[in-house]
């Protein structure tokens, strides 16, 4: 049985988007309560009845969240232009080595705006 699981993480951070046009609101320093969903995919071991312990996903992702929470994202290596697109790829690149079943990252920058990256 093939399944896709998700677990949601949150962090608070500030950013500004230097590639947006002059006068655009997102060029100004502002903050978000970022939320992102981590999706893992694979085949369920019939004897165990589960793919991966949700706790193991948390243990793989929490150290990455700590690198973002309450920081100015533009100052983090690889996030000089921290759009939702760039953040989702950055999360993928940092989470995938410790979570090989990773299938997708969805970053929710606001309640109505999100970006999915599938590697
Ligand atoms: N393709 C992208 N477009 C925008 C990004 C982005 O990362 N990728 N980011 C922003 C801003 O950071 C902004 O904070 C979020 O944009 P927006 O959805 O416009 O925010 P609002 O809450 O103001 O949206 P409303 O639906 O108008 O209330 C902008 N664009
Ligand atoms: Zn923003």
TrEMBL record:
Entry's EC annotation: 4.-.-.-
Entry-linked SUPFAM superfamilies: Tetrahydrobiopterin biosynthesis enzymes-like (SSF55620)
InterPro entries in the record: 6-PTP_synth/QueD, 6-PTP_synth/QueD_sf
Residue spans crossing the bilayer: none
Keyword Zinc: yes
Record pathway: Purine metabolism; 7-cyano-7-deazaguanine biosynthesis
Cofactor note: Binds 1 zinc ion per subunit.
Molecular-function annotations in GO: 6-carboxytetrahydropterin synthase activity; metal ion binding
GO biological process, one term: tRNA queuosine(34) biosynthetic process
Reactions accelerated catalytically: 7,8-dihydroneopterin 3'-triphosphate + H2O = 6-carboxy-5,6,7,8-tetrahydropterin + triphosphate + acetaldehyde + 2 H(+)
NCBIfam families recorded: queuosine_QueD
Family label: Belongs to the PTPS family. QueD subfamily.
Name of this chain's protein: 6-carboxy-5,6,7,8-tetrahydropterin synthase
Lineage summary: Bacteria, Pseudomonadati, Planctomycetota, Phycisphaerae, Tepidisphaerales
């Amino acid at each position: 049985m093939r399944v896709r699981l998700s677990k949601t993480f949150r962090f608070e951070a500030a950013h500004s988007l230097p590639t947006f046009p002059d006068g655009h609101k997102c060029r100004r320093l502002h903050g978000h309560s970022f939320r992102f969903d981590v999706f893992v995919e694979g085949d369920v071991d019939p004897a165990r009845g589960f793919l991966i312990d949700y706790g193991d996903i948390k243990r793989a992702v929490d150290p990455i969240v700590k690198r973002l929470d309450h920081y100015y994202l533009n100052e983090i290596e690889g996030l000089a232009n921290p759009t939702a697109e760039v953040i989702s790829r950055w999360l993928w690149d940092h989470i995938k080595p410790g979570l090989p079943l990773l299938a997708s990252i969805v970053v929710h920058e606001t309640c109505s705006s999100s970006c999915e990256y599938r590697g």
